[in-house]
Amino acid sequence: MSDIPIKVNNLSKRYRIGLKEELHDTFVGSMVEWFKSPFSNYKKVKSLSTFSNNGESDDIIWALKDVSFEVKRGEVLGIIGKNGAGKSTLLKILCRITGPTNGQISINGRIASLLEVGTGFHSELSGRENVYLNGTILGMTKSEIDKKFDQIIDFSGVEEFIDTPVKRYSSGMKVRLAFSVAAHLEPEILLIDEVLAVGDLEFQRKCLGKMEEVSQSGRT
């Protein structure tokens, strides 16, 4: 694996705010707008995918702008910022959930991510089935997952409910199993959002210890 698993150059991401609500002072004005709305709303929706050359407008927000960094193999990087700073957007771009507006990213290695409660789980499947589903998505064989299965369940602490559909799990149970799956199936890159805040303090400490172990093994 490359010594630079993650490299980001001049990354930017912009969003356009949706349709604006227009207020009307009179009943007649409201009725006129009602008849016009199919045509005016079509124009507005069409314009949502169109940006000006400089990308500046009252209805455009930049979640990220000109972000550059690299993460070395085995390195642990924490991103700190206030709400709306673009932390989650950055992680979604790194996970290929959404694309950047400008800039480039280079990812070298398999990624396991834990961005939101229940991410990567099929709610109708049991915990056991979801473990194998996630391992398969990461490119692992059944025998490879079998070797890790007991460790995953033991770490998560949900062994009593492992054959219960995930839709019956509490948020905390989902996070415990999801983190255990992500950390034990040996991806080269592990991306985690603030979703661990859902878990209790003891489990958070357990997760931090596991992340340190992942880092010492040369993973990022």
UniProtKB/TrEMBL annotation:
Q: Specify the ABC transporter domain's residue ranges.
A: 45-220
Pfam families registered for this protein in UniProt:
ABC_tran (PF00005)
For this protein, the parts annotated as crossing the membrane are: none
InterPro entries referenced in this protein's UniProt entry, alphabetically: AAA+_ATPase, ABC_transporter-like_ATP-bd, ABC_transporter-like_CS, ABC_transpr_TagH-like, Bact_Polysacc_Export_ATP-bd, P-loop_NTPase
What molecular functions are annotated in GO for this chain? ABC-type transporter activity; ATP binding; ATP hydrolysis activity
CC annotations in GO: membrane
Keywords on record:
ATP-binding, Nucleotide-binding, Transport
The signal peptide annotation in the UniProt record is: none
- UniProt xrefs under Gene3D superfamilies: P-loop containing nucleotide triphosphate hydrolases
User: According to its UniProt record, which protein family does this protein belong to?
Assistant: Belongs to the ABC transporter superfamily.
Tell me the PANTHER family matching this sequence.
TEICHOIC ACIDS EXPORT ATP-BINDING PROTEIN TAGH
Q: State the name under which the record lists this protein.
A: ABC transporter domain-containing protein
Q: Which organism is it from?
A: marine metagenome
For this protein's source organism, the top of the classification is: unclassified sequences, metagenomes, ecological metagenomes
